[in-house]
Amino acid sequence: MKFVCKQSDLGTNLSLVSRAVPSRPTHPVLANVLLSADEEKQEVSLTAFDLSLGIKTTFEAQVETEGTIALPAKLFNDIVSRLPEGEILFDDEAKDTAETSSESAAIATLTCATGRYQVRGMSADEFPSLPTIQEGQSLEIAIDVLMEGLRGSLFATSGDETKQILTGVHVKVHPETFEFAATDGHRLAVTETASHPEAEGEEEAPKPSEPREFFEMTIPARALRELERMAAMGGKGEAIALSLDPGQIAFELSNQRLTSRTLEGQYPNYGQLIPRSFERQITVERRKLLSALERISILADKKNNIVKFSIDSEGQKLRLSVEAADVGSGEEALDAQISGESLDIAFNVKYAMESLKNLGSQEVQVKLNTATSPVVLTPLGGTKMTHLLMPVQLRS
Amino acid sequence: MKFVCKQSDLGTNLSLVSRAVPSRPTHPVLANVLLSADEEKQEVSLTAFDLSLGIKTTFEAQVETEGTIALPAKLFNDIVSRLPEGEILFDDEAKDTAETSSESAAIATLTCATGRYQVRGMSADEFPSLPTIQEGQSLEIAIDVLMEGLRGSLFATSGDETKQILTGVHVKVHPETFEFAATDGHRLAVTETASHPEAEGEEEAPKPSEPREFFEMTIPARALRELERMAAMGGKGEAIALSLDPGQIAFELSNQRLTSRTLEGQYPNYGQLIPRSFERQITVERRKLLSALERISILADKKNNIVKFSIDSEGQKLRLSVEAADVGSGEEALDAQISGESLDIAFNVKYAMESLKNLGSQEVQVKLNTATSPVVLTPLGGTKMTHLLMPVQLRS
């Protein structure tokens, strides 16, 4: 194999695929990145795969001789990222045949303006292929729609690997909408997006979607975080092609492909957790509430992270307070539009802050019934989002 | 005590003194910051002290009632740093006398535009005073001169607490110059500065220094890093007042005071380590050599950090190379002006890189004798700096 490419192309693509390289590989070959050069297409592709998440990217190169090799991902990435800008000559044809008689001794040579680096790799044969989707559902999803859905759900997934199904985002594909949901058992976030972005001003109207049957899947948060990163690099008008087989999903965007296993099992029926009616409602400026929580969280940190919300209906004020015995106390007061009677209720400040950070609107509505029943936060205007928080018990 | 001050003043000064708060205090009171308000001067001062390093800063405030209190540094700093901009009312006069009858229960109340925070502190009586310098040497040192000296020496101090004396910078005060030296046993850095900054263009000429006797001291690197930070906040023309007692040193800059114990023991006689004559000399572009070392260090990292320098006198090239068996190899070549015969010599790449980062000039000179004798690096022009590196043995 022999090709010439730009340092920036090789560097950018290597750092992208490197994110699918497992930190503790179950098989040595998985610590590698698969590099292959295609003479006909004049392009080079890189692949990394941890058996769950796989990423493949392709970029242009002047390919003289095609071939494949597996190279240690970290070392290769570390070297390439430091090479000077400009052209790199990649060559893995053994020159010292005397020394490298064994088949496994694949050596890649990188030559740049200032020097020459050799990296010992291994045969590409051992590297597992990325799964292909044979005949499942497929659809196109606009990058903006996907980003919106992920932003509104990813933060609420569970980090606890024993709760497998909760480590993913559950996506429901309806004919006209997508629903993204995540819960870790303490809070729930549901975001509903139109399946096409709204046409802005002069822009071309989106092509009408074909009638589509309902389907759903649970996708690991880790894969979706990489997808988010990938999508952020894509253009504004672009779409991502999604295809789904039982147990496997693939996303494709211009020169990139991401595959992931899907999570098995029944996703909780979260719809039934969301109350339909509320006795109380508060409208408050999101940033002001968030700042107040950030301040008071310093003291809440000393007391199980619990913050008391005192809803003062008469004064139209929302008061926050923490009493941490032996350390200190804090209180904050905000103007709020309150309907319903006054009430004291308490929350885990971390969940409340994360929720507010992800709601995105200027004002938020907090809808609630009693001090022990679930509370719903929604943005005022914008995307349709529902965050559900469980209150915690107030100990006096 | 009762005063009003700006959140930004309290915040900035708190974060500055907090750096002298020990992470594992030997006595509980040392985890506090001492706050005291002076009614006559209309100013507030903050002090932190870990029994070796002490920092005291002063800022303006509207002081209504004076007093002192010791407050838990981390919590207090965390709260103040998040308070909204604007005025803060500080008050430690107990209101609920019923609750706080015991003497030790000092409670500080901070009131800002949005809320109110209480922090439990302790009596200021237990807080140790910062050492005062009675009658030792003293001198003024221009901030620029100090910064130059520290930049040229601090990096080479030892981090090994068992080598006490080497964890500091040794400063020699000559009548017309200052000499800053540091060594960790593997490398040595010596920087000599004029005792006054050179007058630039139209600026006023520096006032002639009074005849001064020679003295020297070894100052802990930790205190000097804080001094560097403090000096960086000072104005360009300002000077720092230094005063020295046996075992104790103090630096004063407008509203800040830093004290530190000095390190006891005989500092190595480093002058005798620096060779007087050299058989070979290389002049090379500093940044190019540094970049090449940064690249090749990735492979050196796999092989004890050793990089071979091949000095090619005929070709007027400096070649760098690493052979890491089973992993790969790398080589770089740079143009250089070389006098003397060709030679192969090896260095620890980390020390070579750190040295080059701190030399600061566009070109550097590498002066050497044999592959096993100490090598000297100096900048071409600028401040007088001498870096000495010990070569390491090359194993083929």
From TrEMBL, chains A, B:
Transmembrane segments: none
Location(s) in or outside the cell: Cytoplasm
Entry keyword annotation includes Manganese: no
Domain DNA polymerase III beta sliding clamp N-terminal residues, every copy: 1-131
Region (Disordered): 193-212
One biological process term in Gene Ontology: DNA strand elongation involved in DNA replication
Swiss-Prot/TrEMBL keywords: Cytoplasm, DNA replication, DNA-binding, DNA-directed DNA polymerase, Nucleotidyltransferase, Transferase
CDD domains per UniProt: beta_clamp
Subunit details: Forms a ring-shaped head-to-tail homodimer around DNA.
Family, as annotated: Belongs to the beta sliding clamp family.
Name of the protein in question: Beta sliding clamp
Species of provenance: Oxynema aestuarii AP17
